Amino acid sequence: MNAPGKKHNVLIADDSSVMRRLIGHVIKKLGYNALTANDGNACIHMLNSEKIDLLLLDINMPEKNGMEVLSYLQANDMALPVIMITADDDVSQAVQCIKMGAYEYLTKPVQNDRLEITVANALSELNLKKKVQLLEKELRQQDIFRRIHGKSSALQDCIEQAMQVMETEVNVLLIGESGTGKELFAQAIHNGSKRKNGPFVTINCAAISNELADSLLFGHVKGSFTGANNDHTGFFEQADGGTIFLDEIGDMNLDIQAKVLRVLQERKIRRVGEKKERAVDFRLISATHKDFTGAINNETFRADLFYRLEEYPLAIPPLRKRSEDIALLANHFLESFCTANNIESLSFSDEALDTLRTYQWPGNIRELQNIVRRSAINRKGSVIESVPILVAADRPEKSGEDSPMPLSGTASASSPGIQQPSVTPPPLSASAKGYGKEYLLKNAELQAIVKAYEATGGNQTKTAQVLGISRSSLYRRLKKYGIEKNLSLSVSQSFQ
After folding, report:
1. Rounded distance, CA 206 to CA 251, Å?
2. Residue 369's domain is classified under what CATH number?
3. Minimal CA–CA distance to 19: which of 117, 89, 112?
4. What is the CA radius of gyration of the chain?
5. Which end of the chain is less crowded, N or C, counting CB atoms within 10 A of the terminal residue's CB?
6. Per-state percent for the chain, helix, strand, coil, to nearest 5
7. 179 burial class (0-12, 13-18, 19+ CB within 10 angstroms)?
8. pLDDT tier at 419, thresholds 50, 70, 90
9. How many other C-beta atoms can be found within 10 angstroms of the C-beta atom of residue 397?
């Protein structure tokens, strides 16, 4: 819709300079911008180069006549009101024009008052259609992104970009820190696409080993290897007719990257133990928390695969860039938690909300949800006066996925209303004394992992929830410390 105060552009296509001048005078009198073209080709050029709101089209013109221009509009889905103007009073031609989508058919000489009324009505109808389309778009957006909450400009810009790309077949690369909602965006893009009735298959790339990659990604046939007791459909084949979501694509093994690249190029897979290839039809969405520049330079990620993935990069804003959404999200999570657990209605005090707004949120929305749950559990009344935010010493101002996890500790003086956590990590071992700050942070992080693991009885999913990170993030940290297969390994052993 034209912005307030912006005039409509009306294109007058007629081979007669006198008619262009006379009609242009009427258009300007009505307060609109008058643009002109003297033949069919010039008219089409103007339609492609300018934002035209209404076309006044003569039928008898050189190069291309009015009927040919009308056919061009139909073939290229260019929806705008067209008023046909001709010296021929031919009823059959008028009927044909209307069937081809013309708004009105006027014969020369055109009376000024008739022209004014017709133009005004056509533009009024255009404005009404645009209002309806805008409302339909807003309702559709609300439905597709109903699980994504927030009104900040950063989030709305991201949603608008997702709306623009969702109806295409372009590969989308979602870039954002852990906990920002990349999977929710991937699901929303799928739900708004032409493939919405097809499957949506999610793959955690960090959890795929070389040994199982072929079977998991491409499937296998019965008897192809020991333990293959039945045919198995791989992830790419499962996504046929739908969307495949490669989460944490930056953590994919280099050997597996080559196999995925081939599928993206050929759109064919071969099951393990099978000779024939199978065609697969899927739309690809991938996500990462990493900057690929370093990985490509270090040759840990293939540049050719990256360029396949990032046909349309979409950056998901971290929560610290959406401060105006924090109170809305906190109240939403609080209401959901109370409803799910049959708890009386609770609310946050202004001081508690101020604390949430000023925190940097290295764990983003996932961390906020965990803190809201803990706040509800630790409440002393119906109003939550303070929130148990966990902070790590010298936390980077902008923390990404590989930054230290939120650790129990003392709240900073700049964070009012933060409660001292009820549980603190065990003291550093004697061997840790005298080491630098990086060593101490790693030691404290490892202690937090071990303590959470013990508290949850060895359940990795619950351990990740307690720490406020994803299960794949926990796995990467365990792998970094060399304890992914033995969480009970002592802190001192891991640092020897």
Report:
1. 5
2. 1.10.8.60
3. 112
4. 31
5. C
6. 45, 15, 40
7. buried
8. very low
9. 7
Q: H helices then E strands: how many in the chain?
A: 19, 16
Structure tokens at 374: 């803990």
Q: Which residue has the higher pLDDT, 449 or 338?
A: 338
Angle 97-77-136 (CA atoms, 0-180°, nearest 5)? 110
CA distance 40 to 70: 10
Cα(461)–Cα(466) distance, integer angstroms: 9
- Under the banding of pLDDT at 50, 70 and 90, the label for residue 134 is confident
| The one-letter amino acid at 476 | R
Between CA 20 and CA 24 the distance in angstroms is 6
Which 3 state secondary structure label does DSSP give 428? coil
Alpha helices, DSSP H, located in 145-229: 153-166, 182-191, 210-218
Query: Could you count the other beta carbons within 10 Å of the beta carbon of residue 19?
Result: 19
Specify whether 402 is located in the same domain as 433: no
Per-residue pLDDT band for 423 (boundaries 50, 70, 90) equals: very low
In a domain, 320, yes or no: no
| End residue of a domain, out of 408, 424, 440 | 424
Q: What pTM was computed for the model?
A: 0.63
Q: Which two tokens stand for residue 246?
A: 């490669």
The encoded tokens of residue 30 equal 């009505």
Residue (of 204, 398, 392) closest to 287 by Cα position: 204
* Mutual angle of helices 323-340 and 364-377, in 10-degree steps: 50
Asked if residue 198 is part of any domain, the answer here is: yes
Q: How far apart are CA 409 and CA 395, in angstroms?
A: 12
Residue 392 lies in a domain: yes
- Helix H or strand E encompassing 283: strand 282-288
Residue at 93: amino acid letter: Q
pLDDT(470) > 90: no
Task: Tell me how many degrees the CA angle 409-176-311 measures, rounded to the nearest 5.
Answer: 165
Is the Cα dihedral 307, 312, 317, 318 positive or negative? negative
Question: Within 267-322, where are the H helices?
Answer: 292-297, 303-309
The pLDDT of residue 431 is 41
| Cross-strand bridge partners of residue 312 | 172
C-alpha–C-alpha distance, residues 102 and 96, integer Å:
9
Asked if residue 213 and residue 71 are part of one domain, the reply reads no
Asked if the model's pLDDT at residue 482 lies above 90, the reply is no
